[in-house]
Design brief:
By secondary structure, this protein is an alpha+beta fold. It has a single domain, classed as Nucleoside Triphosphate Pyrophosphohydrolase (Alpha-Beta Complex), CATH 3.90.79.10. It is built from three helices and seven strands; from the N terminus they run E-E-E-E-H-E-E-E-H-H. Strands 1, 2, 3, 4, 5, 6 and 7 form a seven-stranded mixed β-sheet that branches. The relative contact order is 0.27. The N terminus is likely disordered.
């Protein structure tokens, strides 16, 4: 079997409005605690990356999203486990922001992204956004 079949998929949603991106700050106490991220999460077995994003945004932020095109794909290691990272353009279409896994959210410009401490995997997305 190809190596990619053994990798878990991690998803991230990139919400962009008026040249700003939505980031969320993880609560302390997790492996990426107190770091900024593009919200998302790991796809469950049998779940598409797009449906995982919809679920994660609803669970973690209380909002309903529409998933657009994939903007970025890469890979990273987490606890020596390989992950495939897929970032999609998303649009918030409903719900009211309610934080469960995060202590705050913030809309930031591409240049402000480099001033924030980000999760390692999200740094890959940040670098892509700043170069485009």
């Amino acid at each position: 079997m190809p190596d990619s079949s053994h990798r878990r998929v991690s998803t991230a949603g990139i919400a962009e409005e008026n040249g700003r991106f939505l980031l969320a700050l993880r609560k302390p106490g997790t492996s990426i605690g107190e770091r900024w991220e593009f919200p998302g999460g790991k796809a469950e077995p049998g779940e598409t990356p797009e449906s995982a994003l919809v679920r994660e945004y609803e669970e973690e932020l209380g909002v309903i999203i529409e998933v657009g095109p994939r903007l970025f794909e890469g890979s990273f290691l987490n606890k020596k486990q390989p992950y495939r990272l897929m970032a999609f353009s998303i649009k918030i279409i409903g719900g009211e922001m309610a934080l469960t896994e995060h202590s705050q959210v913030r809309w930031v410009t591409a240049s402000e992204l480099s001033t924030l401490t980000m999760a390692d995997s999200d740094s890959l997305i940040r670098d892509y956004l700043q170069k485009r």
